[in-house]
Amino acid sequence: MKKKWLSMLLAVVMLGTLVVGCAGNTGEQQSKEEEITISYMIAQSVFQEYHTEMADKLKENENITVDYQVVPDAQFDSLLRTKIATGEVPDVFETNVPSGVYIYGVENMVDLSEEAWVERLVNPELLRYSDGGIYGLPKESSSFFGACYYNKQVLADLGIVDPHPKTYQEFLDILDTIKEEGDGVTPIYMTNGDHWTTQIFATLGFSVATYPEDEQIYKDLLANERKFTDIPEFERILTDFVGLYESGYVNENHLSAKYEQAQEAVATGSAAMFLCGEWFVTDLHTQYPDVEIGSFVIPFADNDMLGTGQFVNGVIALKESGQVENVKKFLDLWSQPEYRDLMFANNPGFPGLEGIDGGDVEPSVQELVDEYIVTGNYTYQINDTMAECGSIWPELWQYYVEAIMGEKTPREVLEAWQEKYEDFMSESGYEGF
Q1: What are the residues whose beta carbons fall under 8 Å from the beta carbon of 169, sequence distance 6 or more?
Q2: In terms of C-beta density within 10 A (0-12 exposed, 13-18 middle, 19 or more buried), how is residue 107 classed?
Q3: What are 23-69's pLDDT values in tens digits?
Q4: From its phi and psi, is residue 183 left (phi > 0), alpha (psi between -120 and 50) or beta?
Q5: How far apart are CA 218 and CA 121, in angstroms?
Q6: Domain architecture of the chain: domains with CATH
Q7: Residue 97 and residue 75: Cα distance in Å, rounded?
Q8: How far apart are CA 311 and CA 135, in angstroms?
């Protein structure tokens, strides 16, 4: 699957944006006679200005109203589950695909495999659920390039230019220099007030540290042929993670700090770097457009490799909405260049559909793609490769916080998680448990 995906990405990178005819129904073919309203549930951190721009254009062109239900991140999962359980669902919701299909139940989703826009997908294999179906309209063709995104000027002032640590010790050496010579600059900012950011270090590290055996390890774990406590690299990664805190490399307010605070800290230079996905650069530049940002990957277990996501952001339709055909009409329009181009105008990236202008990608992101994705030097994070247990990942992330606080050792984290994992897989009826 990697090679097929890589060839698709290379085609997009080398040929640029393709100008193709819009598949399926176009805006000119749609009738404006009947007003349609589409309820669209989305997490607050995912909602962007382009969502409003796209909706305004759709209303003007097609008399279709997009009713956004913007939900605080911490409430999104529980609220969506409640809506699905009660049948009072939104027409569509935005989340990661295909992992969101596993988490919220394929039986609740509309199979979109036969929609016209599917033929324009840049990376269809990445989207497929285990039954081969496609259940989401994607934003990107790829996403989550996990790296340290840093303030170039802060590091340059310390004599660090274009860092590229090849070993984990070289990464720590950079943090040491910042801590000792940075006049109060936090080497690496952590936001454990948002557990989705807490988990990034281990989520990437588990796969990179075990590569190239990571895929087989995850298969064995899913078949209950190995335990998390059987994998020494997992304990090593958690030990390294806790070590960042014990060594004083992180901000003192890390337990309460939120993602938005990391943007300010790196932009203003009070912190040197933040471990995150590429969206961090776009979000930061929305408020601080003049700050130069660089990037480098953490060489977990001395493996100079990029950890990336086997998912993209996408829109999923729910069967119980009561207007599936209207939703399909909406998604077909939503896939067209006149709307999709707005998505990337101020948020450059790698479109998931052909014929879309992805804009000029941030150099710090493009460099990662060129060095790691295009060359095939990457592997997928554990979250996506083991998407079957996606609904309980947040409980593991809470264990990470307990390790940071000294309430659990790395070994105890894995032991507690193994017990939780086995119970969940058994209750869910997975074979082997």
Answers
A1: none
A2: exposed
A3: 344 444 444 557 899 999 999 989 999 999 999 999 999 999 999 99
A4: left
A5: 28
A6: 2-143+310-354 (3.40.190.10), 145-308+379-427 (3.40.190.10)
A7: 19
A8: 12
